[in-house]
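Q: Sequence in, structure out?
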Amino acid sequence: MESRTSVVLAPANGGPLSRGIAPTETASVVPIRLIRMPAVRAITSLSRAWIYALEKQGRFPKRLKIGDRTSAWVEAEVIAWVQAQADAREVAA
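A: Exactly. Output:
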């Protein structure tokens, strides 16, 4: 029997799930938190304009379109990006 991993999207504010895939008997559920621009700015300490510039250059995680006028980032990707910046600093030193 093969193991599968199910994904559940959960909003960052802890509200009800917008979409979910029921886990199979051998699956583990991995929540994906979506965060909006204010949270991205708080995590990275970057300005809105610089976040968009880095994203356009392919140097920052791409945002997801979650509505007609709404975008969000996957929190784990943003945190991994910050960690990569810290790791690169340590290698360069």
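The chain has one domain: 5-92.
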